[in-house]
Amino acid sequence: MGQRGEARRVQAHDGELGAAVARAQEGDESAFAVAYRLVQPGLLGYLRGLVGDDAEDVAADAWLEIARDLRRFKGDGAGFRGWTATIARHRALDHLRRQKVRPRPTALEQDVLDLPGPHSTHDQALETLSTEAALALVSGLPRDQAEAVLLRVVVGLDGPSAARVLGKRPGAVRTATHRGLKRLARQLGADVVTEDAPRTLGDST
């Protein structure tokens, strides 16, 4: 499956996620497990982009906080993904401060790299990437661009939600995402990418 389909599939589960969260807030433990299953893959991919191999430990800390504060959450499935991403980001930044390092794009590890939306040259280019090639290219993005792409693509947030997570204006996040994708497209030689081009350059490993 192309990366575009992966991102759309994440968002397609928002209804199921919202219902699960509502039941979990009433004490349904199995519903919380459903919410975890729907959110954790994207959340873990985002954290890998921030803290690398420590992502699972940071995610565990984040989920403890999520579970503790669950009853305070108000919103739908998409809102829950944004809320959990905000918590995870705070835990990641705390982790990095303890290590006295700043977030680096060199740790990026993710499975999908395509921004949902109308076809454009740069997101067509991303659909030609294998996972290995994606990692190599995205690792070279400036941190603001890399994190914006992660939130939009891996976590599946829309622009305003990603902006709230990052504490920035939506326009700034749109610009960072666009610049990141444009840079990737330029590295891929996007001028030769068409609708009929192969969806991958090779098998992921």
Q: Which short descriptors sum up this protein?
A:
single chain; disordered N terminus; mainly alpha; 205 residues
Strand residue percentage = under 5%
Q: Kindly, what is the distance between the CA atoms of the first and last residues, rounded to a whole number of angstroms?
A: 15 Å
What order do the helices and strands follow?
Answer: HHHHHHHHHH
Give the beta-strand count.
0
Give the structural class. mainly alpha
> Which word captures the global form?
globular
Level of helix content? Answer: 55-70%
Oligomer: single chain
- Specify Rg, calculated over alpha carbons: 17 Å
- Largest sheet composition: none
Low-confidence stretches: 1-6, 105-132, 191-205
- Average predicted local confidence, pLDDT: 75
The DSSP helix count reads 10
